[in-house]
Amino acid sequence: MAWSYVTHYVCDGCAAAYELSRPLNTCPACGGLLEAKYDLPAMKRDLHPGMFEGRTTSMWRWHEFYPLREEAHIVSMGEGGTPLLPSVYAGKQLGLSRLYFKNDALMPTGSFKDRGFSLAVSFAKELGVSQGLTYSSGNAGSSFAAYANRAGLNATILVEYLANPLKKAMIGLYGARTATLYFESMNEITSMLEEAVRELGLYQFVNFINPVRHEAMKGYAYEISEAFDWKAPDWMVHPVGTGGGIWGAWKGFGELAELGWIDSLPRMVAVQPDATGPIPRAFREGLREAGRYGDSSATIAQSIAADAPIQGGRRVLDAVYDSGGFADTVTDEEILEAMRWLGKEGISAEPSSASALAAVRRGVRDGLIGPDDCVVCVVTGSGLKQPSAIQKAVEESPLQLRASFAELKALLS
Questions:
Q1: Whether 314 contacts 346, CB under 8 Å
Q2: In the chain, what are the domains?
Q3: Where is the signal peptide (predicted)?
């Protein structure tokens, strides 16, 4: 058996094929996005669900499904294998009997980005890449900085000017070189980064421009299907910035279906804030490509406040359309309420993460999600990443007392 069953890259645009041994970002021929392909017939012959029992609980228990070819190059801090928690509060409020939360807020740097950067940095190490660049609204920068530092990779991180001070400080804590990035639209950032690939050959770690980072998000499909005794949920709900999480998960479920390990596929739900939702806007209009839309500075959901997705968001929209799912926006008020509900689940979620539960509420309200449907919300980041939002969601208690038994007794009664 092979450590990995990866075979080559194929370009989304021109279908050109490339060896994985080259340190590529986008397609050299047309600039399209590259996708890793696997020898699924060999995987079907060699692999079976039971063989993963007893392995590490991290995302690396599924190494055959990732493009890294040698175990020696793994850079890991225990990412993946996060809890899949049944709802104890929100499900009852919504009349959902099978609502679950995949809690990636418990990752090493506090967000789901750790899956992608563990793989992408490991892969870069295998290629012999010594320096790399990424853009970040905060969480990706923290994760890249942490993993790059452990790998001895020289990391440069462009942190958007809207990122909150705590996230900026965390990136610095992990030891990366940072610069604050000013821009009018995500389109400017994408154009700048793509030009840097063409003109400088600088290896990048931005979702999709980096061709392997989203492969790690396939782990959602494997972990969740295994937890459900090799069945897929009916709905998978993801907050979406660039969309690596939803695309990777959809690809992972597709692989499991091709292998015959699951007999159905989930419907994928893409969630963005009301202030800037190019993916839901395109979905409402029946389009397969999203243009610039909204104001990134006008929402508390900083991590998913992207006004223009990379290469039109075609991969994200494909996942939504091809799965029979939907894309929707949620308001800041709905996000704050979802944060409070998640608190009653014992989960501290940053606003972007809470948007997934807010979208489920809308889906139930609109009759799209039924009471007996199995629904999984991905909690992508910890509320401790954005403490000011928690303070906004929950007022400080007005109750006060002195340290006396009489006052304590009065309070308790």
A1: no
A2: 84-110+213-393 (3.40.50.1100)
A3: none
236/157 Cα distance (integer angstroms): 30
Spatial distance between the Cα atoms of 318 and 305, rounded to a whole number of angstroms: 20
The token duo for 353 is 């993460």
**Based on the number of CB atoms within 10 Å of its own CB, is 346 exposed (0-12), middle (13-18) or buried (19 or more)?**
exposed
Nearest 5°: phi and psi at 35? -130, 130
Q: Count other Cβ atoms within 10 Å, centred on residue 127.
A: 16
Enter the tokens of residue 132.
């790399």
* 188 membership: H or E segment, kind and range: helix 186-200
Reduced to 3 states (helix: H, G, I; strand: E, B; else coil), residue 267 is strand
Closest alpha carbon to 154 in 129, 172, 123:
129
Answer for the pair 141, 134: CB distance below 8 angstroms, yes or no: yes
232-259: average pLDDT: 97
267-273 and 235-239 beta bridge pairing: parallel
271-320: per-residue pLDDT in tens?
Answer: 999 999 999 999 999 999 999 999 989 999 999 998 889 999 999 999 99
Q: How far apart are the first and last CA of the chain?
A: 66
Model pLDDT for residues 375-393, shown as the tens digit of each residue = 999 999 999 999 999 999 9
Give the pTM. 0.96
- The strand pairing partners of 181, in sequence order, are 160
φ, ψ of residue 251 to 5 degrees: the values are -65, -40
What is the C-alpha to C-alpha distance for residues 343 and 91, in angstroms, rounded to an integer?
13
Q: How far apart are CA 255 and CA 273, in angstroms?
A: 30
